[in-house]
UniProtKB/TrEMBL annotation:
GO biological process: DNA repair; DNA replication
Protein name per its UniProtKB record: 8-oxo-dGTP diphosphatase
Annotated signal peptide: none
Annotated keywords: DNA damage, DNA repair, DNA replication, Hydrolase, Magnesium, Metal-binding, Mutator protein
GO MF assignments: 8-oxo-7,8-dihydrodeoxyguanosine triphosphate pyrophosphatase activity; 8-oxo-7,8-dihydroguanosine triphosphate pyrophosphatase activity; 8-oxo-dGDP phosphatase activity; 8-oxo-GDP phosphatase activity; metal ion binding
Superkingdom of origin organism: Bacteria
Length: 133
């Protein structure tokens, strides 16, 4: 069985948002893109709007998918879709996360991410590293 997970790629200038998972959850203290599991009856976009309200207290507008990956962990196989998204209301708060950072593509190597994100991060590096503006 594959668990559908959605996440948001949110930009602020040339920086994007990453969030540190709480210690008590699976993949605790690893970094991720804000998001979570799609619940029955929800579209991916609806799930992402809900997760961003629950976890950051913001309303997002969801755009096109940037990339999707499937990854098997010992406890779960996830199909993760990362959407471009932007905050249309609110300031991000750490309602669930241990920490939130805004980083450039050049800084990706400084953080330990969930293993499922590795391919996505590689593409982010290729697409956005060494940005001048
Ligand atoms: N949100 C998010 N989850 C990710 C990413 N990469 C990655 O492997 N995951 C994994 C971690 C979790 O095993 C799963 C997401 O589940 P979650 O535990 O965050 O979901 P949820 O907020 O709905 O939480 P819960 O109801 O199960 O407690 O996907 C990512 O970039 N963002």
């Amino acid at each position: 069985m594959v668990t559908e997970v959605v996440a948001a790629l949110i930009w602020r200038g040339k920086e994007f948002m990453i969030c540190q998972r709480p210690a008590h959850k699976a993949r605790g203290l690893l970094w991720e893109f804000v998001g979570g599991k799609v619940e029955p009856g929800e579209t991916g976009e609806q799930a992402l709007v809900r997760e961003c309200r629950e976890e950051l207290g913001v309303t997002v507008s969801v755009g096109e998918p940037f990339m999707e990956v499937t990854h098997t962990y010992p406890d779960i196989t996830v199909h993760l879709v990362l959407f471009h998204a932007s905050i249309v209301e609110g300031e991000p708060q750490m309602l669930e996360h241990n920490d939130i950072r805004w980083i450039t593509a050049d800084e990706i190597g400084q953080y330990a991410f969930c293993p499922a994100d590795e391919e996505i991060l590689e593409r982010l590096r290729q697409t956005y590293a060494n940005q001048k503006a």
